From TrEMBL:
Higher taxonomy: Bacteria, Bacillati, Actinomycetota, Actinomycetes, Mycobacteriales
Organism of provenance: Rhodococcus maanshanensis
Active site: S48, H276
GO biological process: triglyceride catabolic process
Keyword Iron set for record: no
Protein name: GDSL-like Lipase/Acylhydrolase family protein
The SGNH hydrolase-type esterase domain, residue ranges: 44-284
Keywords, comma-separated and alphabetical: Disulfide bond, Hydrolase, Signal
InterPro entries the UniProt entry points to: SEST-like, SGNH_hydro, SGNH_hydro_sf
Endpoints of the signal sequence: 1-32
Disulfide bonds listed in the record: C65-C89, C141-C153, C206-C255
GO molecular function: triacylglycerol lipase activity
Length: 294
């Protein structure tokens, strides 16, 4: 909140508005004094979990990124009264934030860090799933036939007494942490919040509804837990906030009824990419992020 207030003063906000913000911070009650529109310069970085591919109202300023105007960064911006620059992009990897142009079907887009500056007040970051091949891993866990027909992805990824996905995440974590250093370097006055990945599958899954065997459902969710733990640890080393959305999305996984699901199933019931947030999911994630940032 201190960084946000500092930015409001730099940008010429009135003394009265600043005093209101200070009072809200002291009271711990954002509802007592809503943030003024324009007081916060907010930049959203990330992959498809933040971008919202195929969700309604796609942002045609960068069509290749498959970014929704109703994704969780938009929900956060509306709740905080912030000016949003959203450069999240589907299929992005950690390198696409720092120094690599990302190719899309509509042309390459610049590294996402280019959107940051010393005037940035708030940054959210959701990135990493593509670095450890979450989507292809999930597809390899699909088994439309009942056991024992087919191959368990858990058995494949834990062969030889090793957890290959866990090792991949462990090896990736320092590179991901170095990305946070670069974010802070580009936006030295900003509040940085890492938003993790949610609860995609309940314990044992729901093989009658989604074609994933129970042990493989548990393994897939364990991969997300490993990723969240690695990101949380790297963020903590840098005194950066980590927002864990697993509890907020628990019970709203791909097994939930369409009107309650925060994530689309392997056969989506609405416009959304499988294993990605639904509109309802984006609203729930955005609400939690905004609440924690207040």
């Amino acid at each position: 909140m201190t960084n946000m207030i500092r930015r409001a003063t730099r940008s010429g906000a009135t003394a009265a508005a600043t005093l209101c913000l200070l009072a809200a911070a002291a009271a711990g009650n954002a509802g007592a004094a809503p943030l003024q529109t324009g007081a916060i310069d907010y930049v959203a970085l990330g992959d498809s979990a933040a971008a919202g591919p195929l969700l309604p109202d796609q942002d045609m300023s960068a069509p290749g990124c498959l970014r929704s105007r109703d994704n969780y960064p938009a929900v956060v911006a509306a709740a905080l009264g912030a000016n949003l620059t959203d450069v999240t992009c589907s299929s992005a990897r950690t390198a696409h934030i720092t120094d690599t142009r990302q190719g899309t079907f509509a042309g390459a887009v610049p590294p996402q860090l280019d959107a940051l500056s010393p005037d940035t007040d708030l940054v959210t970051v959701t990135i990493g799933a593509n670095d450890f091949n979450l989507f292809s891993t999930a597809l390899s866990c699909t088994n439309p036939l009942p056991q024992p027909t087919g191959t368990s992805c858990r058995d494949k990824f834990t062969s030889g007494g090793r957890n290959h996905q866990k090792e991949l995440i462990r090896d990736w974590a320092p590179t991901w942490g170095a990305m946070l250093d670069k974010v802070r370097e580009r936006a030295p006055h900003a509040e940085i919040a890492v938003v993790g990945y949610g609860t995609y599958l309940r314990p044992g899954g729901c093989p009658a509804q989604q074609p994933i065997w129970p042990q493989d459902a548990d393994y897939l969710q364990s991969v997300m837990a490993d990723a969240n733990e690695a990101m949380s640890a790297e963020a903590a080393r840098r005194d950066i906030r980590f927002i864990d959305i697993r509890q907020a999305t628990s019970g709203h996984d791909i097994c939930a009824a369409p009107e309650q699901a925060h994530y689309a199933g392997l056969v989506p019931a609405e416009p959304a990419v499988p294993l990605h947030p639904t509109v309802l999911g984006m609203q729930a994630i955005g609400a939690q992020v905004a609440d924690e940032l207040r």
